[in-house]
Amino acid sequence: MTKISLTPVIDIVFILLIFFMLATNFNKLGEVNMDITKESTSSSKEDIKLIKLLVRQDQTVLNEGKVYDDNDLLTMINLAIKDATNYSIILTTENDVTYQRLLNLIGFLKSNEVSNVSIGLMKK
pLDDT for 20-77, tens place per residue? Predict the structure, then answer.
């Protein structure tokens, strides 16, 4: 029985590999040059006001140590964003809060025309 040697096949594969590596253009498409050596310490013209809310299961929300129910929360948010041109509301939850409670609050805020609501994650 004649044995087939794989050495010539492996040689051909390596030669083809080298050929295609040399023939291929490795330029990155969509590359953006960024100069990050220049740092700026000045604040932007439009600072974003962050409102961090901790959603609780008992139909209340905690903000800066104060407890609000949904209607008081709406008043507090409207007062906080009255002077701000850009704002973002970040909702985080306690461990026992259900998804339904979180979605109900997001729906409540949306129905009262409060936008820029995000869901935040807490590090453990």
Answer: 988 887 666 666 666 655 555 555 556 778 888 888 888 889 888 889 887 888 888 8
For the chain, domains (ranges, CATH) are 49-119 (3.30.420.270)
Which residues, 6 or more positions from 122, have their beta carbon under 8 angstroms from its beta carbon?
92, 93
Count of CB atoms situated within 10 Å of the CB of 74: 16
In this structure, which amino acid lies at residue 7?
T
Q: Which residue has the higher pLDDT, 50 or 7?
A: 7
Structure tokens given for 89: 């509301």
* pTM, to two decimals: 0.58
Q: H-helix or E-strand containing 119? A: strand 117-119
**CA pair distance 87, 17, nearest whole angstrom:** 54
For residue 52, give every residue at least 6 positions away whose Cβ sits within 8 Å of its Cβ, in sequence order, or none. Answer: 63, 90, 92, 120
Cβ 68 vs Cβ 107: under 8 Å: no
Query: Helix-strand-coil percent breakdown of the chain, rounded to 5?
Result: 35, 20, 45
